[in-house]
Amino acid sequence: MTLGLPGDVSRDSVSRAIVHAGHVGAWVYLGMGTVVASALAIGGAPKGWIAAGLLLLMAGALCFVALHRTVFSSVLYLVVGGAVTVTTTVLAMQSTHELDTTDNAVVAIPCIALLLIGGAGAGSWLASFWVVAAYVVGQTATYIGAELSGAEYRVSAGATALAVFIIIVRTVDGLTRRAGLRRQAALVRANVAAREATARRDHELEAITRLHDTAMEHLLAIAAAGSGPIDDRLRAGIRQDLSLLVGRDWIAQHSGESGESAVASGVADGAPILDQAFAVAEDVELDVQMTGDLAVLGLLGSHRAAELDIAVAECLRNVAQHAGVREAEIILGNGGGEVTVAVMDIGSGFEPERVPPALRGLRVGVVERLEREGGSARVWSAIGLGTTIVLTMPEGGA
Question: What is the pLDDT of residue 85?
Fold first, then answer.
């Protein structure tokens, strides 16, 4: 294919890397806290063992989040982390270390580990939501611990600075990736436009050549006929060529190239035009912008074209039902013996690997339908960044 979409594109890779880095940072921080608490316990502060055990429990809950990034695991981690923060605050403020307020490095350990949760979903805006939720839980737990221990509550400066930093990073990442998605869509459109311009130029050159040759041929014939009335056969030939020049298939060869002329001049009568796809778009009130030439569908057999039409209709129906937007884009092209249709939106997106097996609309209605005809469907999507589905179908067929 030549649509300009790289085969290994994955728009959520940066987001996942940030989440994994946050988990590693949280484990390191909790590990250091466990070592410090254990050292204090060995030095004669038995409460240090309790703090070390609680921090290890929190690290285990974070392992569960890393293995199963779901809403349940994320909420469970916040609950466990909140309980650990309350207990750690009470132990720290009642110790003999004479800590004045809750704004200290000891109390900040579980609070900072909470902020590095990552949370369910790969989108930057969802990640920012989890950071805010973790910050609220951590500071609320610290306040409760301060009340129970009779200490002075003060907002943790370290936790606050980290929360602001993560939100800034996530915001920049989200805006950058969304701009990248738009640039990628523009690149695809530019690629298709360039191929259309080349085809149009070749079409115009052939048209000019045909017009020149036809005119010169008849002028020479008229000149050779001499004076007097024009022969009826010559008149009929001129009239026939003139009807071709001003008619719909004027660029076709005189010998008749019905299949090629249909593709060169547009969609011939009876050729596929994605009628079912556009009917679905109208039914679900979806605004569809199309780039490319529908005539490329004439390269497919009628059955394959109908199957591709149904698959595109299913993609548009999914956009209307799940993407949260009312517009989509269809890009058509061909190359390498394949007809390609890309269906794109910048809606809410999803994680393809997390689609439940019970939801088989995309698998049965699109992927398996194309595979039965030797085609394929590839999906690129991420939470908050929209979805691109590239459908390919081999030329020809029944």
Answer: 92
DSSP state of 320: I
Tens of pLDDT along 350-368?
887 776 554 556 777 788 8
CA distance 286 to 335: 28
CA–CA separation, 245 and 222 (whole Å): 18
Locate tokens 């884009």: which residue?
329
Scanning the chain, the segments in alpha helix (DSSP H) are: 13-42, 47-67, 71-93, 105-115, 124-149, 157-225, 232-246, 258-265, 275-283, 302-318, 361-362, 369-371
Six token digits for residue 295? 């005539």
Taking the C-alpha atoms of 215, 218, 220 and 224 in order, what is their torsion angle to the nearest 10 degrees?
Answer: -170
* Topology at the third CATH level for domain 267-394: Heat Shock Protein 90 (3.30.565)
pLDDT digits (tens, 9 = 90+) for 325-336: 999 999 888 877
| CA–centroid distance for 161 within its chain | 32
Name 389's Cβ contacts closer than 8 Å, sequence gap at least 6. 315, 342, 343, 344, 366, 377, 378, 379, 380
289 strand-pairing partners: 329
For the beta carbon of residue 345, count every other beta carbon within 10 angstroms. 26
Instruction: Delimit the domains of the chain by residue range.
Output: 13-178, 205-261, 267-394
Cβ atoms of residues 14 and 180 within 8 Å = no
When mean pLDDT is compared across 61-65, 92-96, 167-171, 313-317, the lowest value belongs to 92-96
pTM of full prediction above 0.85: no
**Residue-by-residue DSSP string for 266-293:** SPPTT----HHHHHHHHHTT-EEEEES-
